[in-house]
Design a protein that fits this description.
Layout (H helix, E strand, L loop, with lengths): L1 E12 L12 E11 L2 H6 L8 H13 L6 H15 L4 E8 L11 E7 L2
Antiparallel strand pairs: 1-2, 2-3, 3-4
Helix pairs in contact: 2-3
Length: 118
């Protein structure tokens, strides 16, 4: 299956289980992978036959920032559902990283990964 990837999309938001995490925006990092057949747009060379990356990024960003979620798992689920509804894709995978997670440990980031099908 062909794939369209959006890598390391950085979005400021106020997500977190603790109230102090919602005091100010922090930067989250997202990777999105959409599985779809790219043979038609590969032959037609027409934007209407594929996922418009600009529109997809706007949809992801709007969804990610429309409300303050407690869990990045929840916002990830919402993004997956909206992408599957909006575009002719057979599978979507999203990774959301939270490099500023309030964990007392020597680590670079925490990440959740969700994979969903229609």
């Amino acid at each position: 299956m062909d794939k369209i990837r959006i890598l390391n999309l950085k979005i400021p938001a106020k997500h977190g289980a603790y109230e102090f995490e919602k005091d100010k925006e922090r930067l989250f990092e997202l990777d999105i992978e959409m599985h779809t057949d790219l043979s038609v747009p590969g032959s037609s060379d027409d934007l209407k036959d594929t996922v418009n990356y600009d529109e997809a990024v706007s949809l992801i960003t709007e969804t990610f920032t429309e409300k303050e979620y407690n869990l990045i798992e929840a916002v990830g689920e919402t993004i997956c559902n909206r992408l599957l509804q909006q575009y002719p894709i057979q599978k979507v995978r999203i990774k959301i990283r939270k490099p500023h997670a309030p964990i007392m440990a020597n680590l670079d980031t925490v990440e959740v990964e969700l994979t969903r099908k229609p």
